[in-house]
């Protein structure tokens, strides 16, 4: 089962969130199952994998993550539970699919998140089951 949840504007504050402002630190924080606070706009050249063990939030603080390649921006592993909030903008720049969900049991919550200029399979978000 895959669940997308779109809810109204809210402000979230995570006292222990890991601050990230680049692609490498974002992947590291996801791998460590940490709440994340984006502290600046940055480009994403490689696919960011959200591991199955991830069950936290990415707070965008109104920043933009922009694709610079044709790679999928976020690959959500089966069983992952991620919330994108805080006005984060995922911008595929007409090059990339924004979110690729690769298995059942994943939950992707989009709470005050903007998906724009995604590309692939006529949608910014694609799901496939294995």
Model description:
The chain is mainly beta and 130 residues long. The protein is built from 1 helix and 14 strands, in the order ββαββββββββββββ. The strands form 3 sheets. The protein has a 6-stranded parallel β-sheet with strand order 1-12-9-6-3-2, with helices on one face. Strands 4-7-10-13 form a 4-stranded parallel β-sheet, with no helix packed on it. The longest helix is centred in the first third of the chain and has 9 residues, at 23-31. The two termini are 12 Å apart.
What's the short story on this structure?
By secondary structure, the chain is mainly β. It has one helix spanning 23-31; strands at 3-7, 18-20, 36-38, 42-44, 48-50, 55-59, 64-67, 74-77, 81-85, 89-91, 99-102, 107-111, 114-116, 125-127.
- Which bin fits the share of residues in helices? under 10%
What count of helical segments does DSSP give? 1
State the distance separating the first and last CA atoms: 12 Å
Give average pLDDT, whole number.
86
Structural class: mainly beta
Task: Specify the biggest β-sheet.
Answer: 6 strands, parallel
The low-confidence parts are 1-12
Total strand segments: 14
Round the Cα radius of gyration to an integer and report it: 13 Å
Q: Main sheet: which strands, in order across?
A: 1-12-9-6-3-2
User: Can you write the helix and strand succession as a string?
Assistant: EEHEEEEEEEEEEEE
Q: DSSP strand (E) fraction?
A: 35-45%
Shape descriptor reads globular
């Amino acid at each position: 089962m895959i669940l997308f949840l779109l809810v109204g504007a809210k402000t979230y504050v995570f006292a222990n969130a890991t601050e990230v402002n680049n692609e490498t630190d974002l992947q590291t924080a996801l791998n460590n199952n940490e709440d994340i606070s984006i502290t600046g706009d940055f480009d994403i050249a490689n696919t960011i994998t959200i591991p199955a063990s991830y069950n936290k939030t990415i707070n965008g603080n109104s920043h933009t993550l922009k694709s610079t390649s044709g790679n999928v921006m976020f690959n959500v592993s089966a069983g992952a539970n991620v919330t994108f909030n805080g006005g984060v903008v995922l911008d595929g720049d007409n090059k990339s699919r924004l979110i690729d969900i690769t298995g059942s049991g994943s939950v992707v919550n989009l709470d005050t998140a903007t998906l724009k200029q995604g590309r692939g399979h006529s949608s910014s978000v694609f799901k496939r089951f294995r």
